[in-house]
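STRUCTURE:
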């Protein structure tokens, strides 16, 4: 749903790119998404629930967090496609692979600040960037992320609304990740409170009143 007026949605024209341009937009959005997650990870004040899980898994297996992210995405897509019969678009496959790759590639390049104030600035920047990243890759219109497919499929099968399913999944993921030794901190709460508004703002830049995230 487009927002009224060009000033309300300055990037809306990018949603009408030809197919090759939309793939470019998708890849750029996923790069920003990987960068935003890396900024939050290296701030070391807490991370999003799925990254808590991924970090927890790395404590027990000789895998990078990017590789854990990729493998988790593959398992989710397989489950949603085979058991929940959710459609897998080309953007879903690209999403599974590239976010994990960008997480690992950007590791040596993202600052790892010592001062607590700098770490919080970096974390908040990561949350804000996540919103832009979400709007960018959703604007490409090439398929839902694997975790969205899982939420939508479970919502359809159980009859529960999307908000209830998403909250339930993220609480379970957070609990499992915490038990495995993933990083839970005040940043996890800040993410929970700030990621929704950030994503809404990012979607609005492209004239999207609603959309799907990772």
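SEQUENCE:
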């Amino acid at each position: 749903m487009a927002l009224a007026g060009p000033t309300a949605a300055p990037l809306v024209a990018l949603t009408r790119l030809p197919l090759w341009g939309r793939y470019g937009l998708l890849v750029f959005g996923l790069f920003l998404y990987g960068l935003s997650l890396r900024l939050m990870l290296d701030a070391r004040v807490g991370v999003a629930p799925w990254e808590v899980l991924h970090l927890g898994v790395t404590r027990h297996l000789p895998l990078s967090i990017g590789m854990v992210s990729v493998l988790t995405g593959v398992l989710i897509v397989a489950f949603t496609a085979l058991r929940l019969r959710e459609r897998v678009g080309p953007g879903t496959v690209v999403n599974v692979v590239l976010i994990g790759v960008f997480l690992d590639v950007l590791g040596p390049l993202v600052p790892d600040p010592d001062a607590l104030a700098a770490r919080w600035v970096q974390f908040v920047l990561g949350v804000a960037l996540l919103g832009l990243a979400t709007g960018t890759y959703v604007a490409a219109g090439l398929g839902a992320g694997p975790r969205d497919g899982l939420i939508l499929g479970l919502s359809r099968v159980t009859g529960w609304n999307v908000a209830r399913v998403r909250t339930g999944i993220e609480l379970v993921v957070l609990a499992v990740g915490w038990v495995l030794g993933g990083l839970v901190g005040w940043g996890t709460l800040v993410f929970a409170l700030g990621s929704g508004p950030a994503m809404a703002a990012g979607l609005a830049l492209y004239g999207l009143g609603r959309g799907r995230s990772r």
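REMARK: The chain has a mean pLDDT of 89.
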